[in-house]
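Field reference: sequence -> structure
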Amino acid sequence: MIARATNRIASKGRPMSVQKTVEDYIAAWNEEDEAKRADLIAGCWAESGTYTDPMADVAGRDGLSQLIAGFHQQMPGARIKVTTGIDQHHDQIRFGWALQGGQAIEGIDVGRLDGGGKLLSIVGFWGANPPAAS
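Structure field:
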């Protein structure tokens, strides 16, 4: 029998919900105000966290915030919405998302959490999986 992973991770003596971590991460992507975005990132993103997708590869909280600022400059009014539940095992997570109010893009993020429940890394994939080779 396989045990279902818990969605809570200890954080300085208090549990931190993986759901809350992902919600704050997505809220950071949707936040245009730099100070508010920095607060969201500080709460869910490890100081040395890395983010990689087909167009970007950044490290640290400032790097992520600058990437998000560029996203808002390129696609004013666009928002990201989580479209699936959060799948978790060990320190790994994955969830689906969709871009709304801009280009129609869907994808999946695969992440790794630190011991306090903050994101150490996100690797984002856009679009459907490629077809299998014949």
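Note: Confidence is low (pLDDT under 50) at residues 1-15.
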